[in-house]
Amino acid sequence: MTPCVVIPAKNEARCLPRLLAALARQRQSVQIVVAVAPGGDHWTGGLCTAPGVSIVEGGTPAQARNAGARAATGDPLLFLDADVLPPNADFVTQACAALITQELDVATVGYRSLEPALRERFFYGLVNVLQSAGTRIGRPSYLGCCLVVRRDAHNLLSGFDERIAFAEDYDYVTRARRCGLRIGLLPGIDILADGRRIRDYGLGRTLLAGLRAASYRQRHGEIDDLAIVDPHYFERREAPARAVDAGLGSVDPIAAGASVNDPRLTR
Questions:
Q1: What residues contact 247, with CB distance under 8 A and at least 6 apart?
Q2: What CATH code is carried by the domain that includes residue 151?
Q3: Residues 151-168: tens digit of each pLDDT
Q4: Rounded to the nearest 10 degrees, what angle do helices 168-178 and 61-71 cross at?
Q5: Order of strands, edge to edge, in the sheet holding 4-9?
Q6: 160: which of 49, 62, 77, 195 fits an S-S bond (Cβ 3.0–4.6 Å)?
Q7: Is residue 52 part of a domain?
Q8: Which stretch of 34-38, 215-219, 238-242 has the lowest confidence by average pLDDT?
Q9: Which pLDDT band, with edges at 50, 70 and 90, does 10 fall under?
Q10: How far apart are CA 221 and CA 213, in angstroms?
Q11: CA 51, CA 245: separation in Å to the nearest integer?
Q12: Among residues 235, 179, 165, 172, which one has the least CA distance to residue 202?
């Protein structure tokens, strides 16, 4: 069956074209569902006009991923955030094959920073260490930026818990473990990740939010109010086009009329 990529999106007019262009270049054909949150910029939904791309209404990250999965017909499901980027044309093929050969139900990959900045490389290096350590001790916690999931496993979990305001991805993996599903890392497979939150939000503040969330979840359970962590965590300032434009300099790719097939939108 054709795999399906589900992308939650809100205010993603800069990053989404790059990801869609990279997916269009995958050797493995994929179904793509973009779940666009209401109330965001008017460009994001308009970018989803490429062949093979469907658009549904999203909401919070959990709501968007669930809406995309319901609209999808493929298997497995690849949940990708708009600010990640497959490093090559074989990423989907390799990820799906590894899910089968490793006999996993829910899996993730390693992360590499899209940019050379030390703080961004440090952050994703730390993510890799924590993911690997958690997997080894049988208590995995994976980011929702890139999850590869068998459809029957997703259905068994009834998707992501839409009541959760923060760390719904960690809850998803925790429930999968408690249900006896097979969870793990896909060896030798990485995805590129944009460190825009580190640039805009700050490394220390990002790490502090993660520690605060982990402490709260340990003592009280899941987080149903973003204010518990930081009410401004998901806010992004509208910075001038920079690295995310992947070679477009200060030109807005939308205003310039760039399509998802524009080679300038990928690296």
A1: 264, 267
A2: 3.90.550.10
A3: 999 999 999 999 988 889
A4: 60
A5: 53-57, 31-36, 4-9, 77-80, 146-149, 106-113, 183-193, 84-85
A6: 62
A7: yes
A8: 238-242
A9: confident
A10: 10
A11: 22
A12: 235
